[in-house]
Amino acid sequence: xxxxxxxxxxxxxxxxxxxxxxxxxxxxxxxxxxxxxxxxxxxxxxxxxxxxxxxxxxxxxxxxxxxxxxxxxxxxxxxxxxxxxxxxxxxxxxxxxxxxxxxxxxxxxxxxxxxxxxxxxxxxxxxxxxxxxxxxxxxxxxxxxxxxxxxxxxxxxxxxxxxxxxxxxxxxxxxxxxxxxxxxxxxxxxxxxxxxxxxxxxxxxxxxxxxxxxxxxxxxxxxxxxxxxxxxxxxxxxxxxxxxxxxxxxxxxxxxxxxxxxxxxxxxxxxxxxxxxxxxxxxxxxxxxxxxxxxxxx
Length: 298
Ligand SMILES: Nc1ncnc2c1ncn2[C@@H]1O[C@H](COP(=O)(O)OP(=O)(O)O)[C@@H](O)[C@H]1O
Known about the structure:
Layout: E1 53-54, E2 57-60, E3 68-71, E4 76-77, E5 81-86, H1 92-103, E6 106-109, H2 110-120, H3 123-133, H4 140-151, H5 154-159, E7 161-164, H6 170-178, E8 185-190, H7 193-202, E9 203-205, E10 212-214, H8 223-228, H9 237-258, E11 262-266, H10 271-291, E12 296-297
Parallel strand pairs: 5-7, 5-8, 6-7, 8-11
Antiparallel strand pairs: 1-4, 2-3, 3-12, 9-10
Helix pairs in contact: 1-10, 2-3, 7-9
Bound molecules: adenosine-5'-diphosphate.
Pfam family, one: ADK
Family: Belongs to the adenylate kinase family.
Subcellular location: Plastid, Chloroplast
């Protein structure tokens, strides 16, 4: 981060933890500071009340004896905080890889965290599997804490995050808000149901490279790879129908909480075209964050 050696700095964070807002107490009471001073003009709906920058300040004694605040010497745009949602096999995994490659965000996938618990044989994993086998949501007691811990990780705080498959219910969204995590953008991938079932049933994983294949649309390159491909235990036609049912039951409730920051993306296009839509939205968001890095004085 750039620095301004003569000033002492205190960060202002968009994380709603009140501890992180100590610098706002330096701002004169006759001019209350809210993030709306700095929010996006073009799409205020995207960022209605968020602090957009990590900024630094000090109290400067002016000639008339009153004190005022200088903001803007050493600033860094806040990292992006993105959520991505969509039905099973809507392409979240593929798009998350493209997004993280370009934007350097930490990818946090609720389903992957749960599968890791199952693989580790933990008590949480055992319980989670019972729900996942039925295509149902795993109880909040397990999922919420797991996701919260990853979001609080130093890498997520520093680089920003891409939250995949969470929240899937209004209670999960509310929990996130209570912990102080506020997304900038909610991406919804929309794909017709008949395409989804076909994608799921043909989906295979290469356990060696982690690469996802589709037996028809993206077949393995060699016989050797083909021989070692595995299928996710819940990627059968019967289970995907249950998962789709659960998705439809919950998606509207979640969407209603994020409607101001939702971008709907046509997920039935090619993966490059889907990414182009997402990339446009993220580029715009990042520019808006960076574009506001001018000096603000109070
Ligand atoms: N946020 C969540 N809350 C509860 N259960 C979840 C959550 N995310 C994932 N799961 C469980 O893990 C399963 C697999 O999720 P995921 O890997 O995201 O794949 P998909 O989106 O194809 O269902 C879900 O069917 C559900 O049982």
